[in-house]
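Bump. Still looking for Peptidoglycan-associated lipoprotein structure tokens.
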Amino acid sequence: MKKMLGLLFIMSILAACSSKPVKEETKAAPVPPPVAQAQTPPPAPQTQTTPVEASKAEVNPLTDPNNILSHRNVYFDYDKYVVKPEFQSLVEAHSKYLMDHPSARITLQGNADERGSREYNLALGQKRAAAVKQAMNVLGVQDKQIETVSFGKEKPKALGHDEASWAENRRVDLVYPGEQ
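Sorry for the wait, here they are.
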């Protein structure tokens, strides 16, 4: 009986392993009726950049007279070193430029008018440069991008001895490398 059960077991395994060949259908699958396909727009024409367009793309925003970045002076009231509200947008624009260009550097040159001693005006010029730097730092500019220096009354913009000339000399110049 054991032989018979063993034989049945083997036969059942062989039977389970055998398979009937599947008859492959030679009919092609029915083709659905044509559906209107969405029109794809033709590819955009390749345009050549003309020299005029290329020069527009290469305009340096720091030197473009139509760009706020071409303005480089922050003016101060007499004996003050607080950035006035009318120069806040200028400081913000230069700050944004510096944040967008992490390798860019700027020097803030503090100046004073001719009134007061040399030492006093050097200190006042430094405080003015530091005030602009602080405003830029608050806006997100890194310290390593900003250098401050004071010229005091040694680098006047206007040479007169009147209020208009003095007002021109109470300033911080924003200077990028390669500029005077």
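The radius of gyration is 39 Å.

Edit: fixed formatting.
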